Amino acid sequence: LVKRLHQFKKIMIKIFGKLILTMFNIGKLGKFPGTIASGVTSLLYIFFYYYNINYLILFIFFLIIFFVSIYLINLLKNEFEEIDSREIVIDEYLGQSIPILFFYVILSEASISLNFFVIIVSISFIGFRFFDILKPYPINYIDKNLKNGFGVVFDDIIAGVFTTIVLYVFIIIYDKF
Asked: How confident is residue 147, by pLDDT bands cut at 50, 70 and 90?
């Protein structure tokens, strides 16, 4: 009985782990799973903003997903063709979340309209996809040299940080004119 429970536990971790890493099979859709996952992430944050979900809850959820994703990628690496498989798109959720969460905090504190938030999310989507696809340094270095769960997630985190910086500078310049 104990052996069967252990086998059941391993199977459940594998099933739910793959669902988390593929964002409930979004990673298995179409030719652009990363772009689809980033788009779904953007829509989720618009939904959260509309319903005024507290950003601390979203940040805690982000941290949980960050650590769980690293663990699951390392644990389930043999379940995918490669460690940074196209199917694994939870890293897109995490990377896309960086600029959106940054502006979510600022804009929700300032009680900015949903329309303006949608514009910021749309620009951050474009910016994140730009950095995630082109992979300028150090994103490309991380992508090529850190072949583990942390590396899979961290290159997207850096793309999200780059997007946040560019978008923040854009807003500062726009505000001056």
From this structure: very high
Please report, for residues 8, 16, 23, 128, 151, the alpha-carbon distance to residue 37 in angstroms, rounded to integers and kept in the order given: 29, 18, 7, 12, 18
Tens of pLDDT along 121-146?
A: 999 999 999 999 999 999 999 999 99
Report the distance separating Cα 139 and Cα 116, nearest Å. 29
Do residues 37 and 89 lie in contact, with contact meaning Cβ atoms separated by under 8 Å? yes
Q: How far apart are CA 155 and CA 153, in angstroms?
A: 6
* Residue 112 DSSP label: -
Tokens 């991380």 correspond to: 142
Distance between CA atoms of residues 63 and 82, nearest Å: 24
Each residue's pLDDT tens digit, 29-63: 989 999 999 999 999 999 999 999 999 999 999 99
Query: Looking at residue 87, what DSSP letter applies?
Result: T
